[in-house]
Amino acid sequence: MDKKRVLSGIRATGRLHLGNYLGAVKGMLELQKNPEYETFYMVADLHSITTPFDPEQLRRNIKEVVLDYLSAGLDPEKSTIFVQSHVREHTELAYLFSTVETVARMQHLPTFKEKVKQHPENVTMALLNYPILMAADILVYKAEAVPVGIDQEPHLEISREIARKMNEKYGLDFPEPQRFATKGESVPSLSGEGKMSKSVEGSYINLTDTQDEIKKKIRAVPTSSNVGGEMSPGVKTLFKLLELFAPEDVSKYSTDYKNGTLKFVVLKDYLSEAIFKELQPIQKKRQEIQADPEYVEKVLKMGQAKATNVASKVLSQTKKEMGLL
Length: 325
Description:
Blueprint: E1 4-11, H1 18-33, E2 37-44, H2 45-48, H3 55-72, E3 79-83, H4 89-97, H5 103-107, H6 110-118, H7 125-128, H8 130-139, E4 145-146, H9 153-170, E5 178-179, H10 211-219, H11 233-245, H12 250-259, H13 264-290, H14 293-321
Parallel strand pairs: 1-2, 2-3, 4-5
């Protein structure tokens, strides 16, 4: 390969929010512009069914994520954009990879334990195998860079572990993928607790939110009544978002905070405007793409063909070395 390959994807659990945009999509865009990389970006629908889901809602969510990808700037002429389940090689390679990983190793992952607490009635084999499927997603393209948030690092370690085991055992040449970090890799929740998440209502701003919706959500961020002392979690969230959307103004508002002269409503409304300013062109482009559903279908068919072309060769090579061909 002349170029290094990149693979990333976002679960189809709803429209993308600022956390997805800053933590993953911005990294995708950065790598798409870099001529040294060949980029593959998927909608992770198979990962979306590891927790309870509604089939009709899933269908809608897949389309929403594709629309968000394209409107945010992912270009089908520069990147391969596809739906994970449309490329069957992912699941077949995942099964082959499952032969070199143990149940105990999967059960000890912090992400698995967290999901077990969240969905104690839905601890499935799909949930347990999530990191193995993720390894297949990456390695079926022999991707070396993965633009994802820092919370995915334990899963990436599994991918590297599987690559080493497959290479040692069968003489294959899988790379050990590394995380491509972005400035917004950990975007805080609007509640001031944890990170922005689609599963926590009131914690996020969607890329499709109107200016009024953004303003309302930002104004609802809890702030302490006193300024000048140690920042409360909500205030820290506001300054983190300011750093990401208006870095040139952080110093001014920080000085006001320390001096005890900062008015939170002024900061919140200014931040709301800065966020909407960045999202406005994305929303405009989304409306244009939405008006042409045939274009979206064309993009996905083209992406499926490109992805399958690469993935089928890697799968065949793996099966051959394992004695299956």
